[in-house]
Amino acid sequence: MNHILPSLRLWIATLLICVLAYGAVVLGFAQTVAPFQANGSIIVQDGRPIGSRLIAQNFTQDRYFWPRPSAADYNGMGAMGSNLSPTSDKLKQRAAETVSRYAAAQDDPIPADLVAASGGGLDPHISLAGARYQAGRVAAARGLPVRSVEAVIDRLAFAPGGAFAPDRIVNVLELNMALDKLGR
Description:
- InterPro entries: KdpC (IPR003820).
- This is Potassium-transporting ATPase KdpC subunit.
- The chain is mainly alpha-helical.
- The chain has 2 domains: 4-36; 41-181, no CATH class.
- The chain is 45% helix and 8% strand.
- The protein is built from 6 helices and 4 strands.
- It has helices spanning 4-33, 35-38, 89-101, 128-142, 146-156, 172-181; strands at residues 42-45, 48-52, 125-127, 169-171.
- A hairpin with a 2-residue loop joins strand 1 (42-45) and strand 2.
- Helix 5 crosses helix 6 (172-181).
- It is elongated, with a radius of gyration of 22 Å.
- The termini are far apart.
């Protein structure tokens, strides 16, 4: 029994230091330096949370920009890829349904990110090309000029990697909120 006691003390000390103390230090630092991000980047409107900047939501109305497809059905608790191979009939069917939903045509090809789910299935961003591809539908549904919708897209588009990854993306939730503020 005496040989177990030192091991037990070491286990308890390690648990207290590595789990509780380290966790408290990291949480305290995050809450001090970046509280919005540390709390999930929750967007609040009229005093109630409407979503996170970090997790896609399934917008389906024509007046809204649609996100990328989600293998997790937009459930933040189940972030995952589909693990379906490119030759999978189920994946081909989902892609065909998505292309049909967008009414894509050979002379108006759909950007790949609007057809393919992200690795985690919850990417809240679409490419600038994906946003511009949807601008006409959204503008028509809202009764706005396409130029006005494109101006909002351009204002919100950003390059997450700066000069190292210059392709611009747009957060779908923030884009839809900005258009809702226009009042149509």
